[in-house]
From TrEMBL:
Keywords: Hydrolase, Protease, Serine protease. One of its GO terms (biological process) is protein catabolic process. Residues 233-341 form the Lon proteolytic domain. Gene3D superfamilies: 2.30.42.10, 3.30.230.10. Residues 129-170 form the PDZ domain. This is endopeptidase La. SUPFAM superfamilies: PDZ domain-like, Ribosomal protein S5 domain 2-like. Belongs to the peptidase S16 family.
Length: 345
């Protein structure tokens, strides 16, 4: 009898370990938390007395095991994604996490630029070119460029930003070639590349061609006066750009634009202040509601169908929150909405 009990316990322990450690080719995500940005952003000599707060919202994500796969079936706010939707081909988990952290770093710089320009503060730029972060296997750049290379020219035209690079490479055909000026290990090199179609699994329109660079990043040193620091630990991705901008702007200006409200939200932001689409908007609504937010800013995407705003509205109605979801297309719209609010009682 004792032997049978021991065998059952051994079987249960082994079964538990199998369920826990056996990873499926999926990523699992669920609502994360809401982080108060006054705790992680500091403008030297800035105005830190806020009656309310701005909060970034997060989604928890990791590799799915059998338990999480089953658990995801029980709620519309727990989602599964095939690996190929999350990671580039051949990319390791460590490389994916590094890419996400780099995207977060980039979003912080752009958020600072928006806030400082709006507040009329000093910004200085020192451009180093466009950093190559990932290459698509089988396309022309693979094997000729390396992660860490800096592209500083296209066909003799100086390139400072990733947007410039993308613009210069658009509209090409399979018969075209391009000459890139590249800085590698402090040495300038010239690399000639052709164009090819993208791998079928990337679901790129069939008439588009490229050289095979993924997620290029503008590499530059940007100096802000006064200095500002952001500490977000291991949170990755660019989706907190809008909320970073609002918190930084609030610390740069004397008026407290929170007016006592708890304001959560999400959305990328570019240097023109346009707020862009993110993933997991419905999950972030759940996180914001749990944190007691009064408002949730969601990318409106110009009012298109299936926008992040529409996704957020549906989630808010589903969970029965009193939190108001606000559509945002531009940084100025977020500021205008906040400035229109009466102080919270």
């Amino acid at each position: 009898m004792t032997s049978m009990i021991k065998k059952r316990w051994i079987f249960l322990i082994l079964a538990f370990l199998f369920l826990h450690f056996y990873q499926l080719p999926y990523y699992y995500s669920q609502p994360g938390g809401a982080k108060v940005l006054d705790d992680v952003i500091n403008v030297e000599g800035g105005f830190k007395e806020e009656e309310g707060s701005f909060m970034l919202t997060t989604v928890q994500m990791g590799k799915a095991n059998l338990f999480f796969y089953a658990w995801a079936q029980l709620s519309p706010y727990r989602l599964l994604y095939p690996e190929e939707q999350i990671r580039y081909e051949g990319e390791t988990d460590e490389e994916y996490q590094h890419r996400q952290l780099m995207a977060m770093d980039g979003s912080q710089v752009i958020a600072k630029i928006n806030a400082y320009e709006k507040a009329g503060k000093t910004i200085e730029y020192d451009y180093k070119g466009v950093r190559v972060t990932s290459l698509i296997k089988g396309m022309p750049a693979y094997g000729l460029l390396k992660p860490g290379d800096h592209i500083i020219g296209v066909n003799g035209i100086e390139v400072l930003t990733s947007e410039q690079l993308i613009d210069l490479l658009q509209g090409m055909n399979l018969s075209d070639t391009v000459e890139l000026t590249v800085m590698r290990d402090n040495q300038m090199e010239s690399v000639e590349l052709g164009f090819s179609k993208f791998p079928e699994e990337m679901n790129v329109p069939n008439d588009r061609v490229g050289i095979g660079i993924q997620a290029p990043i503008t590499d530059r040193d940007v100096t802000f006066e006064p200095n500002v620091t952001i500490d977000t630990s291991q949170i990755g991705g660019p989706s907190a750009g809008l909320m970073f901008s609002l918190e930084i702007y609030n610390q740069l200006t004397e008026e407290d634009i929170t007016k006592g409200y708890e304001v959560a939200g999400t959305g990328t932001i570019n240097e023109e202040g346009t707020v862009g689409r993110i993933g997991g908007a419905n999950q972030k609504v759940v996180a914001a509601d749990r944190a007691g937010a009064d408002f949730f800013f969601a990318p409106n995407e110009g009012g298109v169908a299936n926008s992040n705003y529409q996704e957020a509205i549906e989630a808010a109605e589903d969970i029965g929150t009193s939190m108001k979801v606000i559509p945002i297309d531009h940084f100025d719209e977020a500021l205008a909405f906040l400035q229109s609010l009466p102080p919270k009682n």
